[in-house]
Amino acid sequence: MRFFSLLIGFCLLGGAAAKAASTPPMAMPETWVPQDTFVLRTMPRLPPVDARDQAYEAWSAYQVSGDTRWLGRALSGLKDTPEHSHRLIKARVLQAMHRFDEAVALLSAVVDEGHSDLEARLLLASIHLAQGKPGDALKVCSREAASQPASLMLDFCLGLAESRQGQAKGAFQRLKKRRGAVAALPAAQQQWAYGILAELADQQGQPGALQWYARALVVDAENLYLRRVVAEYLHRQGRWTALQQLTADGRDQPQLALWHRLASQALGQASYEYQYGLQQQMVEAERRQDPLDASMLSRYALWIENQPEKALRYAQQNWAGQKTPEDARLLLAAATRAGEQVVVAGGAGDCHT
After folding, report:
1. Is the confidence at residue 12, as pLDDT, over 50?
2. For every residue of the chain, which 3-state class applies, written as one string?
3. Is the pTM of this model over 0.85?
4. From CA 275, how far away is CA 298, in angstroms rounded?
5. What is the reported pLDDT for 207?
6. How much is the pLDDT for 33?
7. Domain 49-146 belongs to what topology?
8. Is residue 232 over pLDDT 90?
């Protein structure tokens, strides 16, 4: 894809990243009527199949589209499921819904039953991190690392937890020495490891973070979560052309569409059609009031509508549910624009805003 060469090109060029400039709102003529507007997506009917099969179909649809409405369907088909593999999928669905306490209880039960599944333990640690509890994540990773000292994945798990406790530099130096072994991992684990190296480099303000994000994207270009993370990074760095290319096919995915809109506006290439379509998506998201949309609505209010108080309200709602470095940066940006002071605590690590 085109944005790969662009991202990698930026990595090779190096140099200090440009500061992300504030993106002024663009007025839309009142008389303008779009000829080909976005159509708000409706949920398609799934064929009548087994409830668990339908749950897997819904989970796959969510992973492809990012539409959070699929999560309810996925969860409904996984109720009271005793099978180990089904419970792991259920935990992932609960994680995506930010129902972290339920996911932790489910995964803790799996671990307590003596399953030797590394996936369950890594997922449990990642949920603790999303809750802003790096100490709990560190305990999970440390306990397993004691019995599997050579495990590359557990070492990366430890490094990420350590970074959220302010030890990013030491963790990054240790994990970087093991980067050669990452290529031998399965694709999903490769992407996770490269993403961790990128986050740790970013926490230290190193321009090399983009190199690691580019490697992660090469593994799987369609990972929506990763693309959102990289989009947030490119926006902070003011790399508008790379951001525009990364999100070029995200028209039907509101969070990617928002990043594309910001990049195009910064480059002076924003179209009224795109602006109108995104506006309709935000109106629909506000109508639903799904907490999972809070970060997106906060960014839209902050950078498109120029309503910092509204942006802060949504950022606080988002922070109440999830506490990652990205969430912390959004909260701080909204508070700064609104002229308010907030205390960001909860293991989000060092933030550069």
Report:
1. no
2. CHHHHHHHHHHHHCCCCCCCCCCCCCCCCCCCCCCCCCCCCCCCCCCCCCHHHHHHHHHHHHHHHCCCHHHHHHHHCCCCCCCHHHHHHHHHHHHHCCCHHHHHHHHHHHHHCCCCCHHHHHHHHHHHHHCCCHHHHHHHHHHHHHHCCCCHHHHHHHHHHHHCCCCHHHHHHHHHCCHHHHCCCCHHHHHHHHHHHHHHHHHCCCCCHHHHHHHHHHHCCCCHHHHHHHHHHHHHHCCHHHHHHHCCCCCCCHHHHHHHHHHHHHCCCCCHHHHHHHHHHHHHHHHHCCHHHHHHHHHHHHHCCCCHHHHHHHHHHHHHHCCCHHHHHHHHHHHHHHCCCCCCCCCCCCCCC
3. no
4. 17
5. 87
6. 30
7. 1.25.40
8. yes
Confidence of residue 86 (pLDDT cuts 50, 70, 90): confident
Type of residue numbered 23: T
Of residues 219, 231, 229, the one with CA closest to residue 193 = 219
Structure tokens at 189: 């684990």
Q: What are phi and psi of 41, to 5 degrees?
A: -70, 140
- The pair of three-digit structure tokens given for residue 57, joined into one six-digit string: 């179909």
Percent share of the chain, pLDDT over 70: 80
Q: In the Cβ-directed half-sphere of 223, how many Cα atoms lie within 13 Å? A: 21
86 Cβ contact list (under 8 Å, min separation 6): 52, 78
